[in-house]
Design brief:
Length: 164
């Protein structure tokens, strides 16, 4: 039996190419390392089990992100006892460096999911509003509104700065 290819990539190549993106999505959504790892793993298990056909690598990446977000949402629904990252930070279990002005992940985790998703997809994965809309199932104009509001909220958390 021949190896299954996903947009021309083997399963191992897909994992190597997209593990960081999917891990970031899971950690930003779940904020619990163990559950985030489960969601990460479930995302790639679904890819392996379902073996969908993809038109391109960008289609594959968008599919993986959507599945990861769905896995995280399912995990949160099943496991309401998850401690939020903001609670952990407030209890001084971990600290985020405030001297790294390029790393805004600590501020992203304080946002609602709807803002966190669009900001992450726009600025970390460099998707445009139309592509983000397809991934999260929203109209591009809604995505632009979420981006604008999310940036405003992020600015207030992060302490100001430029628009971009």
């Amino acid at each position: 039996m021949a190896d299954i290819l996903y947009a021309g990539l083997s399963f191992e190549q897909v994992v190597k190419s997209y593990y960081q993106t999917i891990a970031s999505v899971c950690v930003l959504h779940i904020q619990n390392d163990t559950d985030a790892q489960d969601c990460f793993q479930n995302t790639f298990v679904k890819l392996f089990e379902k073996s969908p056909e993809f038109k391109s690598e960008s289609h594959l990446k968008a599919w993986l992100i959507r599945v990861a977000i769905n896995e995280c949402n399912n995990m949160r629904r099943k496991n309401r006892r998850t401690v939020s990252l903001s609670q952990v930070v407030e209890n001084s279990v971990i600290t985020f460096p405030d001297n790294d002005k390029d790393d805004i992940s600590w501020a992203l985790v304080k946002l609602d999911d709807k803002y966190r998703d669009v900001l992450y997809l726009r600025y970390c994965e460099e998707y445009n509003a139309n592509e983000i809309g397809k991934i999260i199932g929203k109209n591009p104009s809604t995505v632009r509104t979420l981006l604008k509001r999310g940036k405003e909220k992020l600015k207030s958390i992060y302490g100001g700065g430029s628009d971009e």
